[in-house]
Design goal:
about 475 residues, alpha/beta, 5-stranded mixed β-sheet, 5 strands, RNaseH-like_sf
């Protein structure tokens, strides 16, 4: 049995390259191997085209994928994960047991990607953070000024904070959005002093530098920036720990599902009046500790929409800028997050994957301590998909395996002594048979127990004769 992972990327000549990687377990040793099976070039990457290339690779390598392939893993592109025309859908038509597994951490990254680009305020926030990085960090002189001002601000506040650099907003790693935002909020005063100093020293000679500084200062001292920044900080404080948990070594599907359900519950709690009021309170507290006055939200001029024939009512014009921010930005971002979380973390294939989570180290230890906690429907979904597996036999073997797990784990490596009551008297002779090394402290503390066989050489002769 094997599983396959397929991904596409451009090479140096801008040709689309498709890589096929198989993952299998050695039948004798049980070791898991990953091998690059093939690399194919194709300018067309639709689901049907990828399926045709996949079939050709399987036939060329003489792999019985319809019966022996048990898993498939791709990214979140529609041509890969599509339920009707995606590659995984075409493969499952011929091989129903080939589970489609999509990295949960990657799904979460796509959720955040949609949230940070859903409206103009979100786009302006992270666009200006990237502009600030390019403006400050691409010049050694400006980067030095930022470090010096951080030291000055720390001395004035009586703090010895470590120096930080402004972070880049990467389009491929959403955690960079959080890192860039945290630095600007933490050193907001230092950033403003740096921009003002650069504007005074370089702005008069270079109009582009002066205009860039003025634009960044104007945005970073606006209430629009502060509200949007603190809103995304609240969101990142919920999502960032989840990303690290999803990438942990002993994470299983059962735990991942529970964590994501908790995330959805926390986001839903943010979608109410009390949460928005708490955001306004944190905004006021931040403004009180700042060295500048923030420009309040500006009321936009209402558009006069002519009433059409037969139209008896019109949409209500929102005159309050704070109410408009809540409706057009706060609520929109929360709705996008909830919709994306519900849509991307669908329940497809979760049943068999939850069954496989029972094989994780954590679950085995739980069953070992209490065999009665095994769920009543354990391995139901797995045995339904793989009909050749008998559920009762599998469940019995699983419980026995958990009971004897400690003994199995301890027998993987040779013990220090095969017999607890035998400690060799002649240490120099024992080195020929014992592959372990002992330090002087262990030699001094060891108690010599006499045995009816006086030396290891005689024991070795008896072993060979037997």
């Amino acid at each position: 049995m094997f599983s396959i992972s397929i991904d596409t990327t451009f090479d140096a000549s801008r040709n689309e390259q498709i890589s096929f990687i198989i993952r299998y377990a050695d039948e004798v040793t049980g070791e898991v191997h990953e091998r690059l099976l093939a690399v194919k070039e194709s300018p067309i990457t639709s689901g049907k085209k990828l399926y045709d290339i996949f079939v050709n690779v399987m036939e060329a390598e003489n792999l019985n994928w319809k019966e022996e392939m048990v898993g498939q893993s791709y990214d979140g592109a529609s041509n890969m994960r599509g339920n009707y025309n995606g590659l995984q859908a075409h493969i499952k038509e011929e091989s129903p047991q080939a589970l489609f597994v999509w990295c949960h951490s990657h799904r979460l990254a796509l959720v955040v990607k949609q949230a940070v680009s859903c409206n103009s305020n979100a786009v302006d926030l992270f666009g200006n953070l990237e502009t600030l990085y390019v403006f400050l960090w691409c010049s050694k002189k400006r980067a030095t000024i930022f470090r010096e001002i951080q030291i000055e601000c720390g001395n004035m506040e009586g703090k010895n904070n470590p120096l930080h650099a402004v972070k880049r907003v990467s389009t491929t790693r959403w955690s960079s959005h959080a890192a860039a935002l945290y630095v600007v909020l933490k050193f907001h005063n230092a950033v403003l002093k740096t921009l003002n100093k650069i504007k005074d020293s370089e702005g008069s000679a270079d109009v582009v530098v002066g205009a860039s500084c003025s634009g960044l200062i104007s945005y970073l001292t606006s209430q629009r920036f502060l509200l949007t920044a603190l809103l995304f900080k609240t969101i990142f404080q919920i999502l960032e720990p989840v990303t690290r948990q999803l990438q942990s070594q002993d994470m299983d599907m059962l735990m991942a599902t529970n964590i994501l359900n908790n995330v959805i519950h926390q986001i839903k709690e943010l979608r109410n009046d009390d949460s928005f009021k708490r955001l306004l309170k944190r905004t006021d507290e931040f403004a009180e500790n700042s060295i500048v006055d923030f420009l309040p939200l500006v009321s936009s001029r209402p558009k006069r929409v002519p009433r059409k024939s037969g139209e008896h009512c019109q949409d209500e014009i929102i005159s309050c800028p704070m109410k408009k921010f809540r409706i057009d930005t706060y609520n929109v971002i929360m709705d996008i997050l909830l919709a994306e979380l519900s849509g991307r973390f669908e329940s497809t294939n979760i049943g068999p994957l939850k069954d496989l989570s029972l094989l994780s180290f954590r679950r085995i230890r739980e069953v070992q301590n209490n065999p009665h906690i095994v769920p009543c429907d354990a391995f139901d979904a797995l045995c339904t998909m793989y009909s050749q597996i008998d559920k009762n036999s599998l469940l019995t073997e699983y419980i026995e395996f958990c009971k004897n797990f400690t003994e199995i784990e301890n027998s993987i490596l040779l013990p220090k002594y095969l017999n607890n009551n035998l400690i060799v008297e002649d240490y120099e002779d024992s080195l020929e048979l014992n592959a372990y090394s002992y330090d002087s402290a262990e030699e001094d503390s060891a108690k010599v127990v006499y045995h009816n066989i006086s030396s290891t050489r005689e024991l070795f002769k008896l072993f060979c004769l037997a």
